[in-house]
């Protein structure tokens, strides 16, 4: 069996086929390229039993990933993160069958390691030696670290307001780090002028292939059954697009049956272009001016793949929901106090949306719901303030 069943790339808007074995950016019409696999051949050769005994990493699905030569795989042990039941918090918000896909324990502390592992591996396989990318923090840190492991040079541009820990990770990895006074869209314009291989969200085809493994893992961890609802914090939306792509591929392989989960794109009320577009029934979003939210990872005023996010919502009968920063902070506290999980602000936003949708009746009490926590709360030390208890005047702990 081939290590990968990658067949070709196709334009996400026109369907035009593009060579997968040359470094590629956007399609001729400026749209993201999506990886296609020989699913008919794979269906005959690959079955769930083949996964038994494989390493608990995202590379267990290598037939459905784009790296052709296993010697080119760059890994830090990423993937196969826990899918945890949340009985106490689920009971509190009226969703007894509530689960968290917890990306906080993945290398680099966020789900961005998935896209970096696959994207960097494939870039090296295709001969890329130096890449550039804009980032809100976590993606740049992950790509810089995986790039260092692969022996690639990297140029990373992020807003000055990006979390300090991600700036430190990027710098320590040896990347050329530049800070801009603005948003990720401003960083993107700087990268576009670099003239190097642009690893921006969806400007190269393989980050999404790493992100889609979240969907593959959820299906496997639930015994090849699917939940009713999946909530995903959405900035650029690559993870949501990837999960939808993964589940459709599993359907074509015959590994899962029945309808796909209803997908929910969760945004912050201070930056909600996907929510606005979904509410108006549009196929693309409009630029969101003056965007701001403490959930820095989803502060993306205009996503290149917005039409793919919205298409996934419409096709699964899902929805888009915005939550405010105060709700995000409450959920950070509640998840830590009730379940012992210190979630990132983006993950907390998705949990706030789950409660909102349950209260509105969109989520039914008996449905199985999976929420993505996309990173570690400890990477956002300024997201929430904690006031410690005071000692007595004599220096002792009160009884």
Give your account of this protein's structure:
By secondary structure, the protein is an alpha/beta fold. It is 34% helix and 16% strand. It is built from 13 helices and 13 strands. Strands 4-5-13-10-11-12 form a six-stranded mixed β-sheet, with helices on both faces. A four-stranded parallel β-sheet has the order 8-7-6-9. α4 packs parallel to α5 (164-172). It is globular. The mean pLDDT is 95.
What keyword list fits this structure?
four-stranded parallel beta sheet; 13 helices; globular
Termini separation comes to 67 Å
Helical amount among residues, as a percent range?
Answer: 25-40%
Taken from the alpha-carbon principal axes, the silhouette is: globular
Strand content: 15-25%
Order of helices and strands: EEEHEHEHEHEHEHEHHEHEHHEHHE
Q: Kindly name the structural category.
A: alpha/beta
How would you write the strand order of the largest sheet?
Answer: 4-5-13-10-11-12
């Amino acid at each position: 069996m081939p290590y990968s069943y990658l067949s070709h790339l196709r334009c996400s808007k026109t369907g035009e086929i593009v060579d997968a074995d040359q470094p590629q950016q956007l399609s001729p019409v400026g749209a993201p390229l999506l990886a296609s696999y020989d699913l008919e051949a794979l269906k005959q050769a690959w079955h769930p039993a083949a996964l038994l005994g494989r390493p608990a990493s995202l590379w267990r699905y290598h037939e459905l990933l784009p790296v052709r030569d296993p010697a080119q795989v760059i890994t830090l042990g990423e993937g196969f993160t826990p899918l945890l039941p949340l009985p106490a918090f689920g009971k509190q918000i009226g969703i007894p069958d509530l689960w968290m896909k917890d990306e906080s324990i993945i290398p680099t502390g966020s789900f961005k390691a998935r896209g970096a592992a696959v994207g960097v591996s494939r870039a090296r396989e295709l001969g890329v030696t130096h890449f550039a990318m804009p980032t809100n923090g976590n993606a740049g840190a992950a790509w810089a670290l995986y790039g260092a492991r692969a022996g690639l040079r990297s140029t990373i541009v992020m807003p000055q307001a990006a979390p300090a820990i991600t700036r430190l990770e990027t710098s320590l990895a040896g990347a050329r780090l530049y800070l801009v006074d603005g948003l990720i869209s401003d960083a993107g314009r700087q990268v576009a002028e670099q003239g190097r291989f642009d690893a921006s969200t969806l400007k190269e085809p393989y980050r999404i292939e790493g992100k889609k493994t979240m969907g593959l893992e959820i299906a496997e961890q639930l015994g090849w059954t699917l939940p009713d609802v999946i909530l995903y914090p959405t900035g650029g939306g690559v993870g949501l697009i990837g999960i939808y792509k993964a589940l459709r591929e599993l359907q074509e392989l015959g590994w899962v049956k029945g309808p796909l989960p209803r997908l929910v794109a969760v945004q912050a009320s201070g930056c909600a272009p996907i929510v606005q577009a979904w509410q108006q029934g549009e196929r693309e979003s409009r630029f969101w001016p003056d965007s701001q939210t403490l959930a820095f990872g989803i502060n993306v005023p205009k996503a290149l793949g917005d039409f793919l996010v919205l298409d996934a919502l419409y096709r699964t009968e899902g929805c888009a929901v915005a939550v405010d920063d105060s709700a995000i902070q409450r959920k950070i506290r509640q998840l830590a106090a009730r379940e012992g999980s210190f979630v990132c602000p983006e993950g907390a936003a998705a949990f706030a949306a789950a409660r909102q949708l349950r209260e509105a009746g969109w989520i039914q009490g008996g449905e199985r719901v999976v929420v993505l926590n996309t990173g570690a709360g400890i990477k956002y030390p300024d997201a929430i303030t904690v006031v410690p208890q005071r000692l007595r005047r004599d220096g002792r702990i009160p009884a």
